[in-house]
Amino acid sequence: MQTGGESIEQAVSTTPSPLVPPVAGATSVPGRPRRRFEELDVLRGVAALAVVVFHYSGHATRYFTGFPFHFKLGEHGVQLFFGISGFVIFMTLENTKKLRDFVVSRFSRLYPAYWITLVILAVATLLAHEKVWLTGLAVNVTMLQSFVGVGDFDLVFWTLAVELVFYVIMGTLFALGLTRRIVPIALAWLALGAAVGLAGPQVPAWISVYTTRFLILPHAPLFIIGMMWFRIHTDGVSRVPVLVVVAAVATVFVASGIAAGLIAAGVCMIVGLAVLGALSLAVGRVTLWLGAISYPLYLLHRNLGYTLLFALDRLGVPSVFNVLVAIAFALSLATAVSVFVERPAMAAIRKRYKNWSARAHPETVEVQAVAG
């Protein structure tokens, strides 16, 4: 099992990060109240499954005979997830009174499933009679490994750093009272991204590294697209957010090329359709379940799935059936982690925080309830 070395397929760095919480207390279109944007939950689940198929089909075509295709489209789920995250996190902050509520909300959402994933990966490594990367495991517990020069225990964790930086940026803006100025801030963010992208090789390497790591310039337009869709949702269609969305898509074209720009335009369209309720036919029990387990599915599928695929191949299992079994295993394990660890832990952390807040700050006892 690989836990810190080179990726079997370098394209893993473009896999999505299903960190976006279910969107509660929302209205998809004016005059039509709903408990949540179920379409966004569905998109989250579909994107998570897409990356699973992307990885497993790529692995099968690389190492096995007889597998018919590599589902390369699945890698673009990352952009969709960042777009959804922009919408959800901006909406969450708009309904947040205290910064600590936001911090506890994000911590309870991200860390329990992540920690149990690390435990499962370490145990699986031992069962495979391989040496556990103890240093990497210890640093990865913090989820800050990429900021201190330590590799990811599983290479799909790279997207967690992008999300964390976005949370920090937005939390800082909230603490400074600047979320109301999101339009000029977003435009400045986009301008910097376009400038760095246009400069290309002329930009010193250290500037490129730091602007990518700490300002997430390659991904900022996607988060901004999501935030502007929230503005459109709350304030109606108006010139300013529409122009910012156009600027965000244009920035991707300028900084990253035509292919990336087309993907950004697609993300804009899909998130918009979901927010407007135009994807309601995709909402169902199965797709909502898929959305509910998307985060542990993303965290768990790669290393464990590759190990299972190799094991089944050694037993002579046909490659197509091999991949189907691996997908079923990933879905089952993600469901178990979601039901028995992720949801109970998240509820327990938030309840404990709510009780502490009621005692320490009786004037404000609300815990973040806008997003899961």
Task: Describe the structure concisely.
It contains 13 helices and two strands, in the order E-E-H-H-H-H-H-H-H-H-H-H-H-H-H. The chain has helices at residues 38-63, 77-94, 99-127, 134-140, 158-175, 182-199, 205-214, 220-235, 239-256, 258-275, 285-292, 294-314, 319-360; strands at 27-29, 32-33.
Description of the structure:
This protein has 372 residues and is an all-alpha fold. It has one domain. 67% of the residues lie in helices and 1% in strands. It has 13 helices and 2 strands; from the N terminus they run E-E-H-H-H-H-H-H-H-H-H-H-H-H-H. The protein has helices at residues 38-63, 77-94, 99-127, 134-140, 158-175, 182-199, 205-214, 220-235, 239-256, 258-275, 285-292, 294-314, 319-360; strands at residues 27-29, 32-33. It has a two-stranded antiparallel ribbon with strand order 1-2. Helix 3 packs antiparallel against helix 13 (319-360). The longest helix is centred in the C-terminal third of the chain and has 42 residues, at 319-360. The radius of gyration is 21 Å and the shape is globular. The model is unreliable at 1-35 and 367-371 (pLDDT under 50).
